[in-house]
Amino acid sequence: MAGVRSFEELECWKASRELRIFASKKVIKNFPSDERFALTSQLRRSSRSVSDNIAEGYGRYHFQENIQFCRIARGSLHESLNQVITAEEEGYIDENIVLEYRSIFKKTEAILNGYINYLTKAKGEE
Fold first, then answer.
1. Could you give the CA distance from residue 43 to residue 36 in angstroms, rounded to a whole number?
2. Which pLDDT score, from 0 to 100, does residue 124 have?
3. What is the pTM of this model?
């Protein structure tokens, strides 16, 4: 990770940002107003939590803490997918939106897992 000066340069943060923006602009906008304080709020918070936790972990400057925050981010990533699935089952979004979301989800998860693996190896070299 030599040369990385900000969490904004991390590929996993960039991918999670893409996921958050997609959730906000393509998924949540289709929800009915009566879901404003329920599913809308949950998806907004969980999709934001992914990038939030990556950024917070980066700012901890210790491998183990960074790893833990990335694991929390991964949990939020899965939580957000569950909410998108729920939205489809409730009839708020169609299958194409879910497929697009899953694609971004898979990319984000793969990059995040790679980052966690990198941190785990780097921790062992301390």
1. 10
2. 81
3. 0.93
